[in-house]
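Pasting as-is:
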Amino acid sequence: MKVSPSNSEKIVVQDLQMQMPQNSQTFTEQLLVGEIADLTIEHKALLGPIKETIALIDGFTTLLLFVSGKGTLSASATQYSLTPESIVVPLEKMSEVQIKVAAGQVLHFLQFTKKLSTQDVADLSNFPIKNKQKIFATRFADCEPYTEKIKSPNTISRTVLPANIVPRVSLGTVEAIGPDKVGAHKHPMLEQLFLGLADNDVIVHADDASTNFKQYSLLHIPLGSNHGVEVAENKKMNYMWMDFFLTKAGEVWLNTHQPIINNQNNK
């Protein structure tokens, strides 16, 4: 694990190993072990030609975030195309999904496995019917944009995983060319991770700490800290935020995200 140096003791960052080990078709590493309760994070890489089975555990929810490379995912006799910066979340009870990677391709993805609480299971039964499809799958670029007071008009923000699909979890992306910033703010009702996407090169601040945050890195925002993000001139801000709410009531925070209707950036 790489922990950011000097004045960043409170901000834990781990770089993903994007180089496939020699003479191997599979690779797995644990990320940010123990940082968030009831959450396991794995970075997996598959070198084609290969077919890999992902086991799904009863009482847990699994989120698959695809970072680079291409492949296909099969679930309940349906196939989904896997491309960089896309997400697949199995929603219907099933024991496994299969991922296939063609020869010459290397597929990198993150697997988040989160334990469901008793209240989570009860909440699932009350989610809208439209949110109970077999699989939730989308590309980040196809998701609904929103605005937020802490961001400039030049920032493109998107909601990738809305509320009431996975209990107490929501995901989105933030993109801008510098100079720009995400203003300092606090949200003590949730644990938050950042995933650096392609070409991300920013500085993250949290209270008195700060750290460089680049592509293909996973960062944990200290719980309850006053934090923000800065991107310098001609550099790119391109990261995913992942909100893990401590209680369902905390999801009211998402009301600060105001959807944009018919926005030209939503293409």
